[in-house]
Amino acid sequence: MTLIRAAVCHEPNSDLTIEEIELSSPELDEVRVTVDACAICHSDITYIDGGWAIEYPVVLGHEISGKVAEIGPHTETDLNIGDSVVVSLIRTCGHCLACKRGHDVACTGKLRLHETSPIKTKAGEQITHGLNAAGFAEEIVVHVSQCVPVPEDLPSTFASLLGCGVMTGLGSVFNTAKVGPDDVTVIIGCGGVGLAAIQGANISGAKCVIAVDPLENKRLLALQFGATHAFDPTEDLQKMIQNINDGRLADFAFVTTAAPEAVSMSMKLLAPMGSLVLVGMPEDGIVSEFDPGLIAARNQQILGSKMGTSRPHFDIPSMVKLWTEGKLNLEKMVSNVYELDDINKAIKDMRSGSTIRAVVCPSSTKKDPK
Ligand SMILES: [Zn+2]
Ligand SMILES: [Zn+2]
Fold first, then answer.
1. In this structure, which ligand is nearest to the CA of 61?
2. How far, in Å, from the CA of 9 to the mean position of ligand 1?
3. Whether residue 334 sits in one domain with residue 252
4. Taken in order 90, 93, 96, 99, is the CA torsion positive or negative?
5. How far, in Å, from the CA of 43 to the mean position of ligand 1?
């Protein structure tokens, strides 16, 4: 057991409190990781706002980079103490049907950490291991499958983004949609995931990469990240796309925002044979309406994209390669870096819409135990 500092959420719609909590030692097939950087994702904020059901208190944070500090007993792994790793929420048992099929995001295996949280308050109250990671903390204990080694020279703040936001955006384009060079793509929502999807569509050589966002600063960013066009959603988007594309609508519309109205709007932007890719996750209970006859007649598809249908042990090294080759811009996606004590300011900045990714660096202020 280790005492660590973590940002605890005690109830919905409240500030996180920085407190000392107990982290249990890693067991079989688990590792303890020192958190160098943990970016704030909109999923963390949805939980903080009570938009999805979860048991409180909880420590959130799931877009993580750090160093392996301890490997659980009898664990067979290529990881060594001190290795730099990206940690994602995707946990795989390696044995279930989904794992055998390579569908990492659909693993149904039951592992110890699904049943038992490794964190509790100093008074002994269990704390929920938020999003399988609880990364708003100096250290974490996770399943070994959640850790992917990355090169030492990849800055930790960049690496953290590969754990969720960038992996999800790129994965939605590469894995879920499989965008090709002739395709016309529309990306609705230009936050971290949307900007990563824009980069992915560009890397795939898409003919058009059309960004849609109500905020002007995000539309400007989208153009800087390689969008060919950027529109406000109040514009006549169907007409705009048809004007660009010889009268045709889009092959793919990626909804990266959780705004419910974006889903029904996006369906109208698709050409026959087109696919709607649902990447952003609205709050519990949000329902959209579709005309099934029209979808059948136009031979269209609706694709869910959980974490970009990613397989982290394959996709994270591929993303590192794209970064090394200068094709993937991670630097510009890190808007600001914060100490753990300033996490509420970081969350506020993420809510404001002016920040692509706010990254918290818990180990920068870590105090060595006396
Ligand atoms: Zn996330
Ligand atoms: Zn599995």
1. 1
2. 17
3. no
4. positive
5. 5
